[in-house]
Amino acid sequence: MATSKRSAFGRDSGLQARMVFTMFMLGLLYVALIGVLLATATSALLIVIIAVGLFGVQIVGSDKIALATLGAHEVSASDEPELHSIIERLCIQADLPKPRIAVIEARMPNACALGRSQKAATICATRGLLSLGLEPAELEGVLAHEITHVINRDVMVMTIASFFATIAALIIRFAFFFGGGFGGGGRDEGAEAIEVVILVSVLVYAISFVLLRALSRYREFAADRGSAILTGRPSALASALIKISGTIERIPRNDLRTAEGMSAFFIIPARAKNSMMNVFADHPPLEKRLAALSRLESQLQGTGR
Predict the structure, then answer these.
(1) Of 145, 143, 170, 272, which is closest to residue 221 (Cα–Cα)?
(2) Residue ranges making up the domain that contains 84
(3) What pTM, to 2 d.p., does this model score?
């Protein structure tokens, strides 16, 4: 009974509503984009076929591609006994199937969750995180954060949602490089069709980008909250976030570039603090996360009295 309550409480209703809204809006945008392509492009069918094919790859193979890109490798309980022990214990508490466990051989201390479903999830920790010297409760807080992403299924939604922006960017490139295939009739009519396709694709990409960033920031708050509920130690996660963030700031930028494209999936952004990409943050400011965890700590202490 206690386990089911804890698992249910870990699921964030606000996040669920935002994920539904984001997918609905992106679906509308995508339908509008396909409609414009069908109305203006003689090669629209080819683009739709490519889009469907890429969507299948995105859903089925995105986690495998991400793991290969990050240089992650699956580890057994004999390889990393502490990692397996903590995750197994948290999964029992959350009534969740135990995910695959992988280690990314990188100096950057970080962690992420990947996978299209709860049964096909992978929890990844970097070698830098495991050698950072975190207290057991701090490491547990970080891993509980990643397990909450699996509970909330937000990794799958982020994977699908990012597909729309990817397709919009792909169509923009098609329009620029293969403009002759767009639009029928004379050259003026074809040029006008290309302009319409590019304009709509840019709008779809821009709106998708904003929606994804907003969802990404909220899902980090939700995962922090879920970690606090699972472990009962918000202060331990807060301490871990401070240590991880402080260490990442000292990592050379060149060492962060491999993981920068996957930054939204990590517990702490995988980029230098002064990076221009921070203008379009996929994580809430650390100060706000710490303040939220401090409030949760006070609430948990209050209910315990």
Answers:
(1) 145
(2) 2-304
(3) 0.80
Token pair listed for 297: 């700590």
Q: Can you read off the two tokens belonging to residue 282?
A: 């996929």
Rounded Cα distance between 122 and 232, Å, is: 23
Residue positions annotated with a catalytic role: 146
**Which tokens belong to 91?**
């999964």
Mark residue 52 as left, alpha or beta (left: phi above 0; alpha: psi -120 to 50; beta: remaining): alpha
Q: SS3 string of 58-120? A: HHHHHHHHHHHHHCEEECCCCCCHHHHHHHHHHHHHHCCCCCEEEEECCCCCCEEEECCCHHH
pLDDT recorded at residue 5: 42
First to last CA, the chain: 22
Which one, of 160, 207, 169, lies nearest residue 47 by Cα? 169
Which residues does residue 125 pair with via DSSP β-bridges, in sequence order?
103, 111
Helix or strand or coil: residue 126?
strand
What would the pLDDT profile of 176-190 be if each residue is shown by its tens digit?
Answer: 665 555 555 545 555
Length of the chain: 305
Beta carbons within 8 Å of 38's beta carbon, 6+ residues apart: 44
- Residues 291-302, buried b or exposed e (16+ Cβ, 10 A)? ebbeebbeeeee
Please state, in angstroms and rounded to a whole number, the distance separating the CA atoms of residues 245 and 243. Answer: 6
Number of domains in the chain: 1
Q: How many CB atoms lie within 10 A of CB 120?
A: 15
What is the amino acid identity at position 202?
V
- Answer whether 162's CB lies under 8 Å from 212's CB: yes
Q: What pLDDT digit, counting tens, does each position of 139-150 carry?
A: 999 999 999 999
CA atoms within 13 A on the CB side of 11: 15
What ranges in the chain are assigned the alpha helix state H? 2-10, 13-40, 44-70, 81-94, 127-130, 136-152, 154-177, 187-231, 234-248, 253-260, 286-304
